[in-house]
Amino acid sequence: MITARTHADERLLRHARAAGLGEIAEKVLARERLSIDDGLALYRTQHLHALGALANHVRERLHGDRTYFNVNQHVNYTNLCNKLCKFCAFQRLPGEEGAYWLTPEQAADKIRAQLAHPVTEVHMVAGVWPRIPYSYYLELLRAVKAARPSIHIKAFTMVELDQIAKVAKKPLSEVLPELIEAGLGSCPGGGAEVFSERVRAATYHLKISGDEWLALARQVHRAGLRSNCTMLHGHIETVEERVDHLDRLRKLQDETGGFQTYIPLSFHPENSELAHIEGPSAIDELREIAVARLLLDNVPHVKAYWILLDIPVAQTALSFGADDVDGTVVEEHIYHDAGATTPQRVARDELVRWIERAGRIPVERDTLYNEVWSPRSAGRSAVASPSTA
Q: Rounded CA gap, 372 and 178, in Å?
């Protein structure tokens, strides 16, 4: 479809041409898919503002000034893990200091502790430990649902689902309906790392491959569940490997349409076996957001996960392609064990103010991006809260 260009489009094109990105800008304005070579050029350009302007154009075409958040909480039900990923500071073996494994009732207690707040989602991910029985996962889901029947449970990465199917001794196609019946509502996007066998062999060789991760995600989508998708960036991966990763996500999305949101996960080197690596800078993180928004033309949302980015970078990312900042979180261990210095929780009203100070319109959503509240739809002040559910 050919559309007339506005004065803003022409300014964007001139800016991109001056940065050597004119051909890519032509494609963006024409809503054409970018190529692998285009992705490499975007990663390599030194003109960050031109890159951000292109990504912001797509972001505003899709979402205008709307920026999504939710009132959620995290429950990391165990840090026991046998995958021994070199980039992970969260994992523990039994008997190690700090090792834990919550009972279903302890997890439910965390849900009950937030009943005074309008939480709509619990995000549950954890380590992978083969001695956790299949029944535990069903009991965990049921206990959380019993504690707060209205809550949406977003749980179990593809890596966890692989282990759950193994201990169930059933194919995942049979396991997923049972998990759904117990309360599973959607899946997070973690555990993908980088879809590179070179990177996997060097940093997480005991974990499933990129091909296996994608195959599991395909089954999740076919079961009627939506999921997120991610990439862990800023360690030993190359630009070529990043573009390949994004392209493979894009191809699966063409097939299933099951990905809701892409979240670039910044590598935090502290307390890991890769502590000698510097990790990504704020500029790297903004570039990652922008390139993803331009390449992932079929994934609706791109998230600036404030836990990883820090608040000022997350606010800036809202002009570099991101349209979501995640949520209130309440309690997060995986990235804080790796040295994250952001708060472990943030008040709902603070999130609203952060979004407004970035010049965007805050929209509270549920997990599936149904609108819960926005200042315009509510016809009241931006920091007013919906009734507690």
A: 29
CB atoms within 10 A of CB 22: 15
Cα–Cα distance for residue pair 66/230, rounded to 1 Å: 22
Please provide the DSSP assignment of 365-380 as one string.
Answer: E-TT--EEE-HHHHTS
Report, as an integer, the average pLDDT of 35-48.
Answer: 98
Reading the block at residue 1, the tokens are: 């479809």
Return d(Cα 182, Cα 164) in angstroms, integer.
14
Sheet strands (E) in the chain: 66-70, 72-75, 121-124, 152-155, 184-186, 227-233, 259-266, 301-302, 324-327, 361-365, 371-373
3-state DSSP call for residue 94? coil
CB 228 within 8 Å of CB 80: no
Nearest CA to 220 out of 198, 193, 189, 250 is that of 189
Joined tokens for residue 94: 């039994």
Distance of alpha carbon 20 from alpha carbon 287, whole angstroms: 16
Pairing of strands 371-373, 361-365: antiparallel
56-106 tens-digit pLDDT = 999 999 999 999 999 999 999 999 999 999 989 899 999 999 999 999 999
Name residue, tokens 């889901």: 141
Regarding beta strands 152-155 and 324-327, do their DSSP bridges make them parallel or antiparallel, or are they unpaired? Answer: unpaired
Between CA 196 and CA 209 the distance in angstroms is 8
Residue with tokens 């890519």: 24
